[in-house]
Amino acid sequence: MLRLGIVGLPNVGKSTLFNALTNAGAAAENFPFCTVEPNVGVVPVPDDRLRRLAELVQPRSIVPATIEFVDIAGLVQGASQGEGLGNQFLSHIREVDAIVHVVRCFDDPDVTHVMGPVDPVRDHDIITTELALADLALVERRLERARKTARSGDRDSAAEVEILERILAELSEGRGARDAIEGDDARRLARQFGILTAKPILYAANVREEDLGRETTPEVDRLREAVRAHHEEAEIVMFSARFEAELSELSGEDRQEFLEAAGITTSGLERLVHAGYRLLGLETFLTAGPSEVRAWTIPAGATAWEAAGEIHSDFQRGFIRAETIHAEEFLRVGGYKPAREQGLVRSEGRDYVVQDGDVLLFRFNV
User: Fold this and answer.
1) C-alpha 304: how far from its chain's center?
2) In sequence order, what E strands does the chain have?
3) pTM of the model
4) Separation CA 244–CA 267 (nearest Å)
């Protein structure tokens, strides 16, 4: 399951966002360090195709893809040296697949800020620096160990030294480790050690409710400039933690009217989840039958044989073929029976590259 860690300075809207996303009831008070242990919530991935397939097929159960959000306590300046329980908090970040960095982009005298005046660039730089300093300390320790082992002629350690020295050079120049992570060995090492600045990252800009219908704000533009200096491709998703909290209490037509009144069509959850999928190169295929309609998450570019393994190892071991039709076509014609009658269902082999939104029926024999 995809795990996204929500990080940021105290009182920027992390726990309010988390509560809205998961309805988990995590503490969200107007003072720093209200979150000590990370709160974890499993959230269904919004997918209108799944809903429409279920309406057509009328299965006994509907199973969406899921994503896990981890609300990590607010970091502060000096976290890499242990300030504000920083080492404990940083260890939680090492365990997630990607980072959602929440940055406050609005001023409100009724909501305190741990650093005083609201400044998204300063806040971005503090968190980015703390993650890099934590990585620097980790890499220096690991490199010292690897060099000792490499002197004995150990080839694996020698390869590790080369990668770590490359990472150390980037960190020493004030940059993150991402540009130094090239090749499978480097990526594997970064995951093994939990190098923070090697993790994919996206930014959640917490804005005023009245700014939701806009493309950007002056504060978000300033944040974007700071982000580009470190991660040129990083995406920024605008949301309002307060709006999401109110939206989470609504459903059906009331929810849709609330979104339209704000000038938006999708919630912050949907935008964050979809941004997370893009960030990690993921996509969804679907299965549809009388017992279950279900969404499955796979890496973009995965083959039918790999997708079969997501369902069960037997499907992969005994793979014969995948009967394939895109969800929109499946819905347009009214299901498998008319689709087969019209010759729209394709028979694909194990090397077929699955497309986002494919409805697959696997034939196998074990």
Assistant:
1) 24
2) 2-7, 39-44, 61-63, 66-71, 98-104, 201-206, 236-239, 282-288, 292-299, 319-326, 346-348, 358-364
3) 0.83
4) 7
| Long-range interactions of 215-222: CB distance < 8 A, separation 24+ | 217/105, 219/105, 219/106, 219/118, 219/120, 220/105, 220/120, 222/120, 222/121
Exposed, middle or buried by CB within 10 Å (0-12, 13-18, 19+), for 109? exposed
Q: How many CB atoms lie within 10 A of CB 284?
A: 20
Kindly report the three-state secondary structure assignment for every residue of 157-212: HHHHHHHHHHHHHHHHCCCCCHHHCCCHHHHHHHHHHCCHHHCCEEEEEECCHHHC
Radius of gyration of the chain from Cα atoms? Answer: 23
Residue 287 CA to residue 285 CA, distance in Å, equals 7
- The average pLDDT across 197-209 equals 92
Q: Mean pLDDT across the stretch 287-304?
A: 96
Copy the structure tokens of residue 42: 């499993």
Contact 340/347 with Cβ under 8 angstroms? Answer: no
DSSP structure class, residue 45: P
Distance CA 90, CA 84 (A): 11
DSSP characters over 139-163: HHHHHHHHHHHHTTT-HHHHHHHHH
Contact 38, 92 (CB under 8 A): yes
Torsion of CA 364, 48, 40, 191, to 10 degrees: 60
Contact 91, 26 (CB under 8 A): no
What would the pLDDT profile of 211-238 be if each residue is shown by its tens digit?
998 999 999 999 999 998 876 678 999 9
Report the distance separating Cα 58 and Cα 77, nearest Å. 53
